[in-house]
Design a protein that fits this description.
With about 550 residues, this protein is mainly α. The chain has a domain of about 250 residues: MetI-like fold, CATH 1.10.3720. The protein is about 75% helix and about 0% strand. It contains 26 helices and no strands. The longest helix is centred in the middle third of the chain and has 34 residues.
Length: about 550
């Protein structure tokens, strides 16, 4: 009976949140009056803004593939392959994007490079005729996103380079190969699968970028997602917003399919059974060695400047923040005191913590049940269940958001005839939906590391299925479960891209507050609070990463 109830609940969840909203969005777009129509395409083709946003998104995506790969591969070589002085310090700077990302990162870069930023003010002091609006448009968006999107390189490419068998490098050197010939012909080919996967993710990131184009792009460089947000706010243009989201989803699906096929064609198995640990290589050419060090430290400065200035200015008054000036007489703890003593200031933080914590807990409980079914049973239901849970992985968050908005703005039987659009629950459900694929991949892998004999032993001793799961299986996968829980919680604390479509006006999360503080008309107090929010978010992210990764490295 319990199994039947679980199956019914899972089928309802899949229909209500993963299938029906997206299919309904297609229906509303192309079958608005019951008959198939291409009117949305006609509107799109007649909208210069929409077509330009499509072009800008693809230009940004292609540009990021080039710039982020160049910077990302260089960072990984600096901290893992070449013998660079101070590599451990450089690593800390390059890893800052792990604790400082999304709308928080973009607002930080605008804070120091924007019209009233510290760097801009410094440049004006040297060059009085310097254009204070220089950090704007395509160049600014590309600059920020290039340094924001190297996280996958420093995590996954670093892991890949550490797995290279050093004996192959040593053998090539013994045959007279130079350092850069070995890098080009031995090291990079081994990293190709990881680089390829990261490249696809980069393209998708550029295609669906929201925060950077919205805050820094201006009217001259608008991309798909901000345009979807703009069109979705009007009933007459909502079909164009839906069509743009569908195009974004189709592009995502095509690229992921292409990536999967390319991975299946590759052979990524190492021929070495016993690998020797890679040793850092010295750059023998003096000029190239100096150049590598110089570039490495310039990049380090670019990475840490926003964080350093955000932390420093969080301890100053509104005058210093508004004028980008530093003086000991303006240092104060009032901003932090105001946050923790003023209920109105603390509210966005508490709202974000609530949504992040509850959604992280719900998705972990849901996927524990799903992973258990997939692990225990090998039948059509478990297979269909697994593929259904991966649907959000194929869809951009904008498409998911529009599907939910357009489907549940009227009473639906699937929801007990309740209207969800405009409610506080819509954002919670959306957070759960987008976290499902990552959580499933992690927890499913954890389940398949369990020795089956443990479950058989518990069963032979008369333990029931639920008791066995709670007392035998769960303790084994608990470390992985807690790690996923922490990462999911951390991932949506400052989310903006999905939140902006679904948040309740009376309960604004941090992502919305931080974005609003970047507007020119924002008050000094709002900017001050945003700096405090950013510092606290970075502290929470650092603690989370230590909890997930730091303890493992010490064990």
């Amino acid at each position: 009976m319990a199994g039947f109830i679980v199956a019914v609940v899972l089928i309802w969840f899949i229909l209500a949140f993963l299938l029906y909203p997206n299919l309904n969005l297609l229906k509303l777009t192309f079958f608005a009056d019951g008959n198939f129509t291409l009117e949305p395409f006609e509107k799109l083709l007649n909208s210069e803004r929409a077509l330009r946003s499509l072009l800008h998104s693809f230009v940004l995506a292609i540009s990021l593939v080039v710039t982020v790969n160049i910077i990302g591969i260089f960072l990984v070589l600096v901290i893992n392959y070449f013998d660079i002085a101070g590599a451990k310090i450089l690593r800390l700077g390059y890893f800052t994007t792990l604790i400082y990302s999304g709308v928080v990162l973009v607002s930080g870069y605008k804070f120091i490079y924007g019209e009233q930023g510290i760097i801009t003010k410094f440049l004006v002091g040297i060059f009085p005729d310097f254009n204070t609006a220089w950090f704007h448009g395509y160049g600014a968006v590309l600059f920020v996103m290039t340094f924001a999107c190297t996280s996958n390189h420093v995590i996954f490419l670093s892991n890949a380079i550490r797995k290279i068998d050093y004996q192959t490098i040593e053998a090539a050197r013994n045959m007279g190969a130079s350092t850069f010939y070995i890098l080009r012909r031995v090291v990079l080919p081994v990293l190709k699968p990881s680089i390829f996967a990261i490249t696809i993710l980069l393209f998708l990131t550029g295609l669906g970028a929201t925060s950077a184009p919205l805050i820094l792009g201006g009217k001259e460089f608008q991309t798909i997602t901000p345009m979807i947000l703009s069109f979705a706010q009007s009933v007459t243009s909502r079909d164009i917003a839906a069509l743009l989201a569908i195009i974004l989803g189709a592009s995502t699906l095509i690229l992921l399919t292409f990536m999967t096929r390319m991975e299946k064609k590759g052979n990524f198995i190492s021929v070495s059974k016993v690998k020797s640990e890679i040793q850092k290589q010295r750059i023998n050419n003096k000029f190239l060695n100096i150049a590598a060090h110089a570039i490495a430290y310039v990049l380090f400065i670019i990475y840490i400047l926003p964080i350093v200035f955000i932390v420093i200015f969080s301890f100053t008054d509104t005058y210093s923040i508004s004028t980008a000036t530093l003086s000991l007489s303006h240092f104060t703890f009032d901003n932090y005191i105001a946050l923790f003593t003023n209920a109105e200031s603390l509210k966005p933080y508490l709202v974000s913590v609530f949504y992040s914590a509850v959604s992280a807990l719900l998705v972990v409980v849901l996927i524990l049940v799903v992973s258990r079914i997939i692990h225990k049973y090998n039948n059509k239901f478990s297979t269909a269940l697994e593929y259904s849970m991966l649907i959000p992985w194929l869809l951009p968050s904008t498409l998911i958001a529009l599907g939910l908005i357009s489907t549940y703005d009227t009473p639906r039987l699937l929801m007990g005839n309740q209207v969800l659009t405009g409610s506080i629950w819509m954002l919670l459900f959306a957070y759960v939906i987008v976290q499902i694929p990552f959580t499933l991949r992690m927890l499913k892998a954890a389940f398949f590391t369990i020795d089956s004999s443990l479950e058989e032993a518990a069963k032979s001793l008369g333990a029931g299925a639920f008791y066995t799961f709670i007392r035998v299986l769960l303790p084994i996968i608990l470390p992985s479960t807690l790690a996923v829980l922490a990462l999911n919680f951390n991932g949506h604390l400052s989310d903006y891209d999905l939140t902006v479509f679904l948040y309740h006006p009376l309960f604004q999360p941090l992502g919305i507050i931080i974005k609003n503080s970047t507007d020119p008309q924002a008050s000094g107090d709002a900017r001050a609070l945003t700096l405090i929010y950013s510092v606290i978010l970075m502290i929470i992210s650092s603690i989370t990463l230590y909890f997930v990764y730091g303890r493992k490295s010490q064990s």
